[in-house]
Write a structure and sequence with these properties.
This is DUF1828 domain-containing protein. It comes from Lactiplantibacillus pentosus (Lactobacillus pentosus). The protein is an alpha+beta fold. It folds into two domains: about 130 residues, Yope Regulator, Chain: A, CATH 3.30.1460; about 120 residues, Trna Endonuclease, Chain: A, domain 1 (3-Layer(aba) Sandwich). Helix content is about 35%, strand content about 20%. Helix 1 crosses helix 6. The radius of gyration is 19 Å and the shape is globular. The chain starts with a helix and ends in a 10-residue tail after the last helix. About 30% of the residues are buried.
Amino acid sequence: MQLKSQLVTSIEAFYARHHYWTPTNEKVTRIETPFVNRHRDAVIFYVVQETKHILKLTDGGYTLDDLESENCFLSQSTQQLRLLKTQLKRRGVSFDSDSHEIFLRTSTKDYARHQIQLLHTLLFVEDLFSATAFQHDGPFIDQIHDFLTSVITTDQSILENTSNQPCYADFVVVGAEHGTTKLIWTMNNADNRSYAAAIIIEKCQLQSQHANTEFYVMINDEAPVAEDVIQIFKAEDITPVLFSKRYEHVAKLTGQANWDEPEH
């Protein structure tokens, strides 16, 4: 439970301190967050005061440039650009193909919710393109999509929590009438505690408004998955599903009592 008490608590405190934007005399303000990237460096974003009431929130191009410097992201790859643009569009965040900036614009009064939207997107993008994402059978998120659509109908819906803050479960398995809905996140790099914390925060924001809902995270286990990550999710009532054992969870996901893993 240490991650919950320290990292998640510090992130929630950060969001509470930054729940509105106060204009400054600086055109560009650097914001350091409690989130850390895969290098264990603080995740940074910038607030650009474009007008009195309009702000641009941006990572300055760092996220994708850093991934590309380690050959995790290839800006010349049509497949990767298509995946990136599709996921950013779904999350309501923009991308500049020249500067590699991931950004959005907001009003000063809507700063708080768009700050969360940008930060969780940056963590998602880093996870999406982390080192193991494109091994073997294509992007990990696409492998999950193929698996889920082979066993049950899914959607990539946008949900809202009690603060009208958009939350982005990667997949939604919609139950039959009065049935249980399943919200599923994907986690490609199980060593990224900050992304785990972001998933937990989104789940906590959603659960009070979305009754009769179960929460899952599907984890890429090509590399060993630390037991503390598994336990953190379980403690928050999020069912961790190792991708190699995904067929063991089909009955619970689909509501079908019997399901045999297909032969390869």
